[in-house]
Amino acid sequence: MIYTLTLNPAIDVTSHTLAPFALGGLNRLKTVRRDPGGKGINVSKTLRNLGEPTCACFLSGGPAGRELYDMLIADGIECICAEIGTGNTRSNLKIVDSSGVTTDLNEEGPAFDFQACAAIRKRLLEMVTIRDVVVISGKIPPSAPNDIYRTIIREIAHKGVRVILDASGEALVNGMRSVPFAVKPNAAEAGINEDVESALRASSRFLSVGSSIALISLGGNGAVYCDRSGVRMYAEAMKLDVRCVTGCGDSMTAGLAYGIANNLSPEDTFRIACACGSAAALTDGTQAPSAGSIAGFEDKIRIIRI
Asked: How far apart are alpha carbons 174 and 20 in whole angstroms?
């Protein structure tokens, strides 16, 4: 089983405009769709399509939180949620204009609820076994301790469970102190430029603290994979007719988790991760890519040993 933990989930509202986005002007919308969102939830959505057993664990707030839960259950995704005392699960607006450029307008989300977080952590610790993988990802809620991921990773790793961390800023820095099995930020989250050399240096830092795998996505410049056995690989970005880039990194994280959970080779793990990210770029909103779409990209990913 691959569990995902999302402390600040969302309902993603994606709107497509009829023309290039006009800042300060009138923008007419062609389509609007609503999807369950938040980085860990996006990971579970892709895993579900890959046929991999997954459980989405998250904090739920108010009517929007209940809607989020219902959407996931309708999609056939197992869920464990803890209700926060006050506040409403946030909504994130994604505006995709006719040229394919995506503009994100994300709410901060409700204030952190210590009691609800303790409840979801307790449930997760009761469920996981050494055979499982846990993905911890996304922005932490407002007022949450900056070291909350560090605490949760330490608790889970103590049981011998492999943890993948996908975070940014202090949440990433502090989370690394509990040595997750794998780390998968993008360049901005890692605080680096979108080039291979920068990604290799950042990967070396992540591995030096004890993590086994570092995968850094570089947007339109591809991705880099490194592990403690000395494997270093670069995957070129594919030229795609992009529908929406939001969630592509989460699908890549899902591919990484899938490879780890199924004991795939480093190259096969990297390949399916990149295929998941590429396939996600062709979906509308934060829809997860289909298994067929992912499979169609696997043979097209060009991986170079470096």
From this structure: 40
70: Cβ–Cβ under 8 A, 6 or more apart, which residues? Answer: none
Q: What is the pLDDT of residues 37-54, one digit of tens each?
A: 999 999 999 999 999 999
Let me know how many helices (H) and strands (E) the chain has, helices first.
10, 14
CA–CA gap between residue 223 and residue 234 (Å, rounded): 6
Cβ neighbors of 115 (< 8 A, separation 6 or more) are 85
- CA-CA distance, 161 to 127, in Å (whole number)? 11
Half-sphere exposure of 77 (CA within 13 A, CB side): 31
Q: Is 227 helix (H, G, I), strand (E, B) or coil?
A: strand
Asked if 277 and 252 count as a contact pair (C-beta separation under 8 A), the reply is yes
Contact 127, 159 (CB under 8 A): no
232-235/223-227 β-pairing? antiparallel
- Asked whether the beta carbons of 13 and 4 are under 8 A apart, the reply is no
Burial of 242 (C-beta count, 10 Å sphere; 0-12/13-18/19+) = middle
As a CATH number, domain 2-305 is 3.40.1190.20
Does residue 179 come out as left (phi exceeding 0), alpha (psi in the -120 to 50 range) or beta? Answer: left
Instruction: Say how far apart CA 272 and CA 253 lie, in whole Å.
Output: 10
Would you say how long the chain is, in residues?
306
CA-to-CA distance for 254 and 275, rounded, in angstroms?
A: 11
Banded pLDDT at 16 (limits 50, 70, 90): confident
Tokens of 183: 């780390």
Confirm whether pTM is higher than 0.90. Answer: yes
